Please model this.
Amino acid sequence: MTIGASDYDVAVIGAGPAGATAARVAADAGCRVLLLERAVLPRYKTCGGGLIGLSRAALPVGFDVPVRDSIDRFTFTLGGRLSRTWQTGSPVIDLVYRDELDAGLTALAVDAGAKLEEGVTVNGLERAPDGATMRLRTSAGEVSARAVVGADGTSGRSGTYVGVTLDQIDLGLETEFARPDPAAGDWAGRILIDWGPLPGSYGWVFPKGDALTVGVIAARGNGAATREYLAAFVDRLGLTGTPELRSSGHLTRCRAEDSPVFRDRVLVAGDAAGLLEPWTREGISFALRSGKLAGSAAVRVAAATGENALGFATAGYRAGVESVFGAEMRAGRAFHTAFSRRPAWFHAAIATAPPAWNVFRRFVTGETTLSRLASHRAVDLTLRALS
Ligand SMILES: Cc1cc2nc3c(=O)[nH]c(=O)nc-3n(C[C@H](O)[C@H](O)[C@H](O)COP(=O)(O)OP(=O)(O)OC[C@H]3O[C@@H](n4cnc5c(N)ncnc54)[C@H](O)[C@@H]3O)c2cc1C
Model:
C-alpha cells in the first residue's frame, strides 16, 4: 500500500483522542488532512476509560459516547482498609472502552473530510529544504504536509522530534476481568479508589458492564513493587482466579513546565506533549482539549508562508497550551507532591469529611478544578504543610 505523493495541508500522527480531535478540527476548517495510525482501528489502549466532567465537556457536541457504565457511587480505601462509600445522587463519571471511544472520534474526523490511513507507522520526520513543508517517512512511503500534529502518545516519534522534556513518568498496569462473580462485589455504577503503598500510587476498579478494569499506577522504576501492588489489590478484591480478558501496562508522562510544544512545523498534543494531570493521571480531557488547540493552530501553521507567520502560529499554540493547562498542571504537581508524602491524610479527608469529599466530587464533575482549589489560601497552605 502507498499513501501517495500528494501533499497535505496537515498530517496528524496517531488516532487517539488528541489526534482524532486535531484531524477533525483541521478538516472542518477546510484543510486537506491525513490521519496516520499505526494500529488498525478499533485498537486496544491500556486506560481506565474514565470520562470526568472536563472530558465529557470537551467531546464534540452531539457525539454519541459509547458509555459502558455511569458512576454514582465511590468507594475509597487506604491499602485495602478503612473503606468508605459515598453516593453522588446522579452519575458523575462515564466509563468507556477506549477502542470504542477512539474509533468513534476517528469516524467523526473522517466524516469531516480527513483521510485515514490505518496500519501505517511514522518512522521519522524532517523539515524539507524549502522550509515550507515537513516530510514524514512512514511504513507506507514518504508523504509531506505543511503542518504536522504529533499525537502519537507516550512513545511516539513526534515528542522526540520536538524535544519534549518531562518531570514525571509513571507506569500504569491494568487487568480486565470478564463477567465478575457477583460474590466479588456489587460493581454496577460504583468505582473503587485505593490509595496505594508506593509514593504517589493508587489503584482503581472501573466497571464496564460485562467486565471490570482493575489497575494501579506508580512512579516508573518500581516495576516489581507495582506488579506486587496490583496482585495484592486483585487478591483483596476476591478476583484471583476470575477469567482475565487482558493484562497490559502503559506509561503516563507529564511535561516539564518549560517543555517545548512545537518545533518547525510540528505541534505536539496529548500524551505526546506530556499533557496529563499529574495527581490523578487523567489524560483524556487533556488529549481532547490539546487536540482541539493543535488542530486550530495547525490550520494557521499550514497557511504560514514565511518565518514570521510561522512564528506567530507556533507561538499562539504555545500560549494556548500555557493558558489552558499551565495552572492546572502546576496545581496537579502540588497535589501529587502532598499526596505522595501523606496518602493517609488524603484518605482521612476524602473518606471521612463531607466537605473534602464534596470538593473531590466537584473536581470530578468539572464544577471546580485543581488550579481553582489551589488558589484558595487555606488549600495552598495545607498542601505546603503536607509537602
Ligand atoms: C493505566 C492507565 C489508565 C488510564 N486511565 C485513564 C482514565 O481513566 N481517564 C483518563 O482521562 N485518562 C486515563 N489515562 C490516560 C489516557 O489513557 C491518555 O492520557 C490518553 O490516551 C492520551 O491520548 P492521546 O491521544 O494523546 O494518545 P493515545 O491514546 O496513546 O493515542 C496515540 C495513538 O498514536 C498511535 N501511534 C503511536 N506511534 C505511532 C507512530 N509512530 N505512527 C503512527 N501512529 C502511532 C497509537 O497507536 C495510538 O493510537 C490512563 C493511562 C494509563 C496508562
Remarks:
- The first helix runs from residue 17 to 28.
